[in-house]
Every structure is written in C-alpha cells, then in structure tokens.
Structures
1.
Amino acid sequence: MASAAEQLAASINFSAFSKATELKSRIWFTLGSLVIYRLGTYIPIPGIDPSILHDIFARNAGGILGMFDMFSGGALGRMTIFALNIMPYISASIIIQLLTAVSPTLEALKKEGESGRKKLNQYTRYGTVLLAAVQAYGIAVGIEGMRDGAVGAVLNPGLGFRLVTVVTLTGGTVFLMWLGEQITARGVGNGISLIIFAGIVANLPHALASTLELGRTGAISTFFIIFFIVVSVVVVGFIVFMERAQRRILVQYPKRQVGNRMFGGDASHLPLKINTSGVIPPIFASSLLLLPATIANFQAGDQSFGWLGNITSYLAHGRPLYMVLYVALIVFFCFFYTAIVFNPAETADNLRKYGGFIPGIRPGKNTADFLDYVLTRLTVVGAAYLAAVCILPEFLISQYSVPFYFGGTSLLIVVSVTMDTVAQIHAHLLAHQYEGLIKKAKLRGRRG
C-alpha cells in the first residue's frame, strides 16, 4: 500500500504563483462563480411564507431534509431557486453509470473515447432535467401540504404555484449544472464538487457558533468542546491519509526490437485507491435511513402512519439498530459502487492490448482475477474506514447535540474536494514552471 504523496510533494512557490497569471484568473473565476451560487441561495421562489417554512424545516432538521439542506447550503430550508442544488445532476450521473454497466449500447459509447463521453454527458444532462422536474413537482406538492397550525406555507396553492415552482427549481438546477461545467473548464477543481463544498462550508461558521453556544449555556461541557475539536482534527488527518493511500500494482511492458534499436521494456504502476467509491456510500446510506423519519414527521397527525412512527423511533440517531443498518448499508454500497466504477476484466483486457502484464501473473483471466482479489481486499479496508469515519460523528450528534454539519459525510466531502483542488493548483504551478524552463532553454539555444 503506497501513498500518492508525489502528487502533492511540491510546496506552493509564491513567487511562481505571482507570475502564473492564467492560474490567478482561473482562481478568480472559480471564486466569482461560487459567489454567484451563494447569492442564488437567498433568492426565494415566489408564493411562499418564509417564516412558516422555516419553522416546519426546523422541526424536520434531523431527517433527510436536513441532510439535503446541508448539501444545498441552506437553500432548501429557505426554499430558494437553488433548493434542489446539484443533486439531480449527481443522481443522473450515477444512474447513467449504472446503466452503462448493464446496457451494451451505453457500454459501447463509453469505449468510443471522446465522442462517446460527450454523448453520455448529453444523456446525463437530459436525465438531470427530467429528475429535477419530477423532484420540483414533488416539492411543490409537499409545500402545499405543509401547515403550521391553521396557516399553510403557500400563499396561493394550485396549478399556477406548482408550474412556477417546477420551472424555477428546474431552471436553477440547470444553471448550477452549467456553472459547474464552466468552473471545471475555466476554473480550478471539479465544479460540481466545489458547489457542494461551498454549500457545506458556508454553514460551518453557524454550526460552530451553535456548538459554542451550547457550551456557554452549559448544555455541553467545555472539556467536551475541546475534546470534540481535537477529535475533528484527528479525523480530518485520518481522512487525508486514507484518501491518498493506494495500492500500486507493478505493470511491465516487454522490449521490442525495431531494426537495430530496442524499444519498450518500461515499467509503470496501476494505482488502486483504498476508497474507490468516494462519498457515495454514506450519502446513499443516510438517505435510505432518514427517509422513514422524514415521512413520519410530515404525517405526524395521521394515525394511519403509527407503524411508521414505531420504525422511526428504532431508526433514530444513536439507536443500536440505526448504527448497525448504517454500517451495513455503507459496506454494501462500497462494494456495489466499486464494482460499477472499476471493471477488472476490462482493465486486464486493456493491459493485454497494449502489451502490459503484471509480473508473475498471466495476461487475461488470471490478471482479472488477481485485480479482483486485490480490489476486494482494498474495498474491505475502505468500507471499514468509511464506516468508522461516519459512525463517530453520528454518535456525537445523537449524544451531545453536535450540529449536523460535523457529520462524517460532510467532512469527507470537504476534505476530498480540498485535496483535489490543491492538487490541481500544484499541477498548474508545476506546468507554469516547466513552461518557463522550456522558454529559457530555447532562448539560450538561439543565443548559442
């Protein structure tokens, strides 16, 4: 097991940064785009009563709405034009990846290279619009049913409100999808990830202030706050270590003689990450477990949902059944999603096409079996790591009323996106330094 420390080995050279005008323009473009996103999270959709909606969402903060509100930076709780955030795009991307694994047509498109990738991206965009429209209509109907006593959250419910809500929320998601693609192409980092990152980070100061307020009022002790900060730092460091850890498999290429010269004989490495599935397993696991609680909260006054209330009580934060199911779902989705994104047979076939082989392993099926063997054991470690990172914050949230923003999923997203962005900044700086060296070498060659 090796670490990908080489990717971040070079420290930032501030003199080089001052000369890298393209990098500075990319950073300013990224920051400007994120500012536009944050401004949009405060523009409400027309026809709602914000105060009543705020009270309703406050009562459902521990359910699935609380998690999605965290990802949207509070836009869902304020019911703004970006209430759906970028989640329909992520869902559409996952659906396309799943269909690619079972559909020969989509699998053939994936193998076509750049043209196939463009078609798959187009299908993802169509899926995003469809999912956003369906979710927006569901939100519109749900808001019409929300009441605080005798007062409804919607001022004028009806077909007009639903149509305006669907158009507004779908348009907001499409705009964020476009903005994320622009950040990826013209800025620094992955645009979609940065949008989610900005939503989480924007509410971290409020979450920290809430924790300190609990300490001031005596709800939690000062010792626990210090302990919590130390644990958070340790967990972040552990996440950085595990996200950068990988198993490097040696790949050898045979020598070839062309005329009187020998070519090839090089060796490279096939890196396999411990956590191949990323943050998808905790998100899926949390969504499934929080769904019954959300439905039960909305139907609190309906006696026909009494059985759902009993299930919700067993699935509350910190309860043994919740913890066991949470770990089980994380482990399941780790293996499931890893099997989707990495195909050992396809990788072994590509190695054989280019003449590569793993020393001591025969090409073809034996190589695929070996890769599957290694990946399975790496996924066991990765699943245990994700379960540990997510269970500890869940325990703190349930036992000590720590804000939801300090959960394992949010920490994973923040740390992963930060590492990826810093790595891209280093890559731009190194490319700029290499360009400067090449220009100097050319000038010296002309003078000579």
2.
Amino acid sequence: MDMYEDKVVLCAASAYDKKYYLNPKFDGLPQGVKEDLQIMCVLFTEDVGGILSLYFDDDGSLQIETDAAEEDILYDEIGSALKVKQMRSDKRDLLEGLEMYYRIFQ
C-alpha cells in the first residue's frame, strides 16, 4: 500500500539526499509562499534530520509528517515532535492559508 495513497503531498524535504520537492500541482502558489515552504522544510531537516512531508488529507487538512531511516541514529525524534509543534504555532497563518487555498483551488 502506498504511503501517500489518500494524500496530496504539498512539499517534502530530505536530510539524506539534501533535496526539496514541491508538488507541481501547487505551482500557482505565490512565489513568497513557495519560498517560505522551502525554507521551513529545509531548515527543519537540517536541524533534526530525517524527512519532512506536508500533505493534505482527504478532509483538506494540512498534515505535517516526519520520518527517518531505521538506521539513522542521529535522528532526533523528540526534537522533531517539538519542532513540528513550534512550526504549527509560528507558521499558523501560512498553514491555515494553504488549507484555504487547497479547499478553494483543488
């Protein structure tokens, strides 16, 4: 079963291969929003490691998911959870705006 089967991935970043991905379906987002997403995701993975994914669930809610390779002993699971909580608080307006955008335009 595909991990993203019922999800629409907005963006993702990986500390392992130092890459950032923005779903082409969201090319219509304002440039400033796309840059904010990239900075937010890349800084997150540089800080705690692993992989960060932002996706919309079937209700249109934006979810933040982190994952790490099983052999990654440097991944900070506790720091990751705290950083997600901080991100939800600090970027609340951005994240709520993205949910509204998704519900209207997708």
3.
Amino acid sequence: MATAQEKFLEAAEVKAFDMELRKTLRHNIDQYDKKVVEGKEQFLNLELAKTRAAAIKQKSIDNLEKYLIEFEANFIKRGGKVIWAEDGEEAVKEAIQIMKKAETKTVVKAKSMVSEEINFNDELAKNGIESIETDLGEYIVQLRKEPPYHIVTPAMHLSKEEVAKTFTEKKGTPIDYTPEQITNFVRAELRARYSKAEVGVSGANFLIADMGAVAVTENEGNGLMTMAFPKIQIVIVGIEKIIPSLSDLDLFLPLLATYGTGQQLTVYNTIYAGPKQADETDGPDEMYVILLDNGRSTLLAETDQRRALDCIRCGACLNACPIYQTIGGHAYGTTYAGPIGSIITPHFKGMDEFKHLSYASTLCGKCTEVCPVKIDIHKLLLLNRKESVEKGFTSKTENWVWFFWKGAMLKRTKMDKGGAKVKNFMLKQFFKKSWGDRRELPQVAAKSFNQTWRERKGIK
C-alpha cells in the first residue's frame, strides 16, 4: 500500500501539469487578490490590527484550559451542553448518539472543515443518517463526492462550466445553466431540507469565553438557516477557536473577512448562546457544543509550533503559496492543505506519516507575510523538519549521506579529496532521484573555490 508521501508525490506530479486546473486556480486566486487589496483599505493601521490580533490569539492559546473552562461554564448556564471529545471517533460517536435519541433521518450542515477532518458525513451515512451540505461550494463537491479543495472556497478548482456539467449529470439541469440559475436551483432544493431536518450541524469561527457563545461568520445565510430551523443544534469545533471576549470580535471579524474573501465584513455574522430561553420564541430546544482535540494537544505541547493554533482559517497562506497554486488542494491528501496544513497535519495525524508536507514548501516566506495573525509559518515548517529528523523519521540512506557530508564539510582535506569527478558521481548515485526527473543535477566545478583562490594568490 502506498504511503502518504508516495500518494502526495504521485498526485502532485499529475496536478502540476494539468494546465486547465492551473488556469482555473490562477483566475480564482487573482480575483481574490484584487478583493483583498480593497478589503485592507478599511484599516487605518493594518499592521497594528494584525499585531493586536496576534497578541489575543497567543494569549488564548497559552491559556487555553482557562478559557475553555470559562466558555463551558457560561454556555451551561444558558442551558447548553458541552461535550469534550479526545478524537474524531469520539466526537462522531457522541453526535450520532444525540441524533439517534431524536430519531434523526436528515441533518443539514453548514460549512465546517472540522467535520471534514473527522469524516462526519461518511460516518453518519453508515448509520443511516443523511447529511446535506448547505454551503453552495460544499454542496457542489458533495455532489461530486470530493473533499473541499480549499478551507474557505471548497470548489475553487472548478470553472463555471464544470459546475454546470456536474449539476446536469447529478440533478438533470440544462447544461447551459448560468451560475445564477444554479444558485436558484440549489436554494429551492435546500429550502425544503431545512424545514424537514431534525438536526442542524455547524462548525464555529470563534468560541467566546466570557459569553459562553459560538460565533459563525458566512456569506450565504445557509449557516443561519441551518441553526434556525432544526430543534436540535450541534456545533463541532476545534478547541483552538477560543477567544477571551465578545469585544475581540470587532477585530477578528473584519480581519477574517478581509483575508478570507476580500470583504470588509461577511454578510451574516451570528452569535449563538445556547438553546431557546424561557422568554424567547425562537431557537433550538437543545444545543450541544462538541469541543474537539484530535491532536491539538499534541501541537499545544510544542513550545514553538503551537503558534500554528493561532490560525483563524482565513486561507490567505494557501492563496499566496506557489506550491498550492501549482498542485492545488487535493494533492496534499489531507483536510488542511497549503502551508498551515503542512504545519498542523503532522501533529494532528502523526509526524512519521506526514512529515513530507513540511518539505512541500519553497520557504519563500509569502505565507508568513500574508498571515493576519502574524504566524511565522515558514519558520514553523523548518521546525517541523527539524523535529522529524530529531525523532528519527529519516531513512538509513539519508542518514548515511548526511553523515559523510558532515564529515567532509568539517575538514578541508576531506572536502577536497576525490575531486570533481568523484563528487559528481556521488551526486548522481545518491541525489538524482530526490532532485527530480525534470531538473539537471548541478555540476561540481573542476576546481573548488579554495583551490582557485590559492592559485590566484600563489599560495601553496
């Protein structure tokens, strides 16, 4: 069976030479880039806003236990229920238990990457429960039986013609349907689903500790409908989404909108603080928040790499990354693609199996430059690489190569021994495969710099 690394290299090889895919990605990312420039204009001092946001997130993660307990206490006060899940299996098990008690047949689900992380839809299907994605992009990739391509824009890899073809094949709509007609078709389909679903499921953009509330930001209104109609609400959210106070949203919501979609603010920004109260006419009868660990504590234990938990999932680093722009989201073979995914996945799913993702980077630093909460992303990629070596997740061949390399580099006489011919032979023997099929190996010059220098200076 192929390893995660072998699958990644195979998929990357195919996607990198899919010119139509790269054209679609380039077009969609270009549109994003233009909008982000406009969105940034709302900030009088963008750098200060980013610095403040970074400080709040760092404070939140460094005091994670304190704020999660505060959130739990305040949420329970209003009749909500909090479930702590160590891993995805436990989270799904708890959710299904709630659904079976309510004799659930249909679930409507707002966009949630954490649900993708735990294979939520597939697990529900095994238990005879239909889970329907209500975000348009998620709905499209669900029809195609594909995972999301991007953490903000699930169908970024598809052109409007490909979307129209998907609906023709899956729903029988005319092949010449415009994006507006497709949107209206989906709206009509989902309206009927909202009113019939027994349970609504969503993720969360932020958990507000001092209020005991869940904040969700979105553009289509599907998240609001998902939480408004069903009588039972389940929120599945990673523990890192916590922020200290409601007042922090006035900073995070505009930053997330600007760096996520180029807007000043997303269209729907909703705060949920538990089930319907005695003096309220609207709201669910029951509301649950499942706090998911699933490897986050492993990352939290890392003194430096824990900063990756500060991420607000805006997707800016994916759009800026030349690797992501070349191979796209599916090639990574993980829920979280791009630079931030390459940092967190090895800690969530195992460094041994996913260490290769931290090497899938040019280290150009563009990801760090665009991060709205100032995560030093390219540095964390290097730290992951260092950790994978320190933990012994390297091959014997690689260890021997570096052993001899180090020995040669530490002593001039060894470095000069053998001459260019031997060195070029060694490069071909040990590095040709890792260098790639489409790049020529560098040639060692006939004389080293040291030798040339000595000759010019007449030094013997």
4.
Amino acid sequence: MPENNQEDVRTDRDYSVLWKMGTIFVITLILLIPASLIKGLVNERQNTKSEAVAEVGDKWGTDQIITGPILSIPYKTNHSNSFTNYLHVLPESLNVNGKIIPETLNRGIFEVAVYDSQSTLTGQFQLPDLKKLEIQPENLILDQARLNLGISDMKGIQDDVKVKWNNADISFEPGISHLHKDVLKTGISAPIELSLSPVEQNLNSTNFQIQLNIKGSESIAFVPVGKETNVRLLSSWNSPSFNGDFVPKERTITESGFNASWVVTHLNRNFPQYWQNSRPDLNSAAFGVDLFIPVDNYQKSERSIKYAILFIGLTFLVFFFIEVRNKRPVHPVQYSLIGIALCFFYLLLLSVSEHLSFNLSYLIAGSSTIILVTGFTKSILKNTNLTLMMGSILSTLYLFIFMLIQLEEYALLTGSVGLFLILGLIMFFSRKIDWYRLNNTMKI
C-alpha cells in the first residue's frame, strides 16, 4: 500500500513537470506570432524605402543603362524597292570615359543615392562583308542611315546631345529609329550620311564622339556593343558595388572614391556584331556600378528575427532549470511577460536602426531588453546571484546572435557549433536532476 501511494505521488509530480514543460512550449509557439508580425513589419519598411527610392528616381532619374551607339542602315532587296529591311551594325571599337558626381537625397528618413554623370563615347564603325549578307552595296540607302543611342530613362538627359561625325556636329533627336522596340525601348537617334569607298567597299570616315551628360539614381550601366569595349569610370563615391555580367579588369577603391575600368570583347557576349531585322537581347550583357549605401539594417533585422524561436526557447529553458534546481517557481504568466519583452527587442532594433547604425541599435535594443528582463527576474526569484546569472546568460545569447548576424559565409558553421555547445551545457547542468523525485515542496 505505501508503495502504491509513493508511485501515485511520483506520477502526479511527473505529470506536473510535463504539464509545465508543455505550457512553456505552447507559450513559445504563441510568441512566434508577434515575431512573425515584426518580420512582416520589416518587409513593409523595406517596401516603403523602395517606394521612396522610386519616387526620387521618378523626379531625378532612375538607374541608367546606356546602349550603343548602333548604326542602322536601310537597304533595298532585288525583289522590292521598299525600305523594309535594315542592317544594324555595332561599333568596331567603343571607348567610354565617364565621371560620376554623386550626392544623397533624403526622402523622409530614407537616403537615396543620385548622381550626375559625364561620359564621352568614342569609336568607329566598319561594315560587315556585304556579300555574305547577300546585300549589294548599291542597294544600301546610305543617306537615310541613323545612329541610335539607348538611354533607359530619358528624364535624366540634361543637355543637348550631339555626335561629332566626320568633324560635323549632328544633334540627336528623340526616339529610336529603324530598331525594334524590344532591342532598344527608349533612346535617341541622329541622321547620319554615309559614303562607301569604291575600292574597299566599306564606309568612309566613321569615327564618332558623343558627349553624354545624364542624371540617374543608384546605378549606371553600359552595354558592351563594341567589338572591343573599354569603359573607365571615376567617382568620389567610396562604397561602389560593381554589377552585371563583367567585373572590372582594374579597380581602386579608397576613402576618396573609386576608379574602375572594364575591357570586354565581342566574344564575351551573347549577341552578334551585326544583324538584319532580328531582335537580339543587348541589355542582358550590361555591366556597371551601383552607388551602394552601406545601410543593411532591414536585412540584418530580418536575419535576427529568424533566431527568435531559438532565443525565446533557450531563455525559457534557463528559467525552467532555475525552477527545477533552485525551487524557484515561475508562473506561466511571468513566462509570457518575459517572452513579450524578448519580442519587443526586435521591434526596438528595427525602429532604432532606421536612425542609427545597426551595431549601435543592436547594443541599445539588447541592453534595454537585458535590463528589463533582469529587473523582472530579480522581482520573481528574489535572489541576486540567480539574477546576475540570468543577466549574464541573456548577454551571452545576444552576443551569440549578433555574431551569427555579422557572419555570412560562416554563419551556419558558427551557429551549428554554438548550438552543439549549448546542448552540451544543458546536458551537463541537468545530469544530476532526478526527474522522478523532485522535491515535494516545489510547486511547478
């Protein structure tokens, strides 16, 4: 009979511990709801920033892609005299020397990088073998040729654009001529008068020089239309991000700005040097530079929220072991309040990081949360040593999460090793707990 009573008491306590663990687990899952809402808020703020950037771009000029110049020559066939066929020729060489003058504009609390660019485009054209194309030289309508230059956002054009061709200055006109709209969607064109060499059956004097001054925001890119394309960009912006299909052959980045140069040949890209009436995708080969603003608070805030379940779960686990080992009961309501405080950390981090650097914001939000939870722990446990231990554990957890956020390539490795060590510590400190014979005076 006494053995039965002892077994009943043990079973009741066992169910009591399981009930408490289940309650903590449910509270942890419920707290993931506000954590996910905060994550949604991060995405919303990111969208708000994108809208601010787009609004500034609509007024100043969006990111610019410069394509060309492209020489378009109409020609007749032997079967028809209508000008329905066109030969499009890319430059034999293209050299771009550009200077980017950046500045930042504020739209509310958001910063947007904008720029004025001054680019000089030089090069020359050469006709392909007309016999291979089955085009008779006399069928070329040379006096109706057009020089097309693609500019992705026409609002950014500041001055009259002219091309120096055969030592004559020719003004560009709005719109693309002879080219399909899916080759160049927007841009400008200029009428060019061409002449053929009677001996070589090629174009006479096709050197060109174009001075292009345009405004834009965030990025500028060039399409390597030359058989050999050389691009050199200078700027006082000291945090560039080079983008596109090609990386700079040479680049120098200092506190005073950057200097980058590219060399691309026609063999590096996926479209021909000339075509007839076809529609190659030119912009797929664009390359250039982003005026990167090193503010990644939204990305880092989102990454920190991904560890919410880990952080809340480990904090609750520490409180649970304090209950078990030190007979200091913590009510489920108190668990909930502590969990809500931990969730507010992410809201503080997001809101403060919009005005200060992420690292400083993390320090402010983390310190505030540690002070709040530690003070509440003192009122619950009535024990200074346990309170200090709890504050130290929270500080270590926040430091661990901060390291994971900062690390990108080694985040998985660091997180795996860290969690393995945490599991080892939990197993070490719980090794002497007799889960079947908890003290009768403990109320869980």
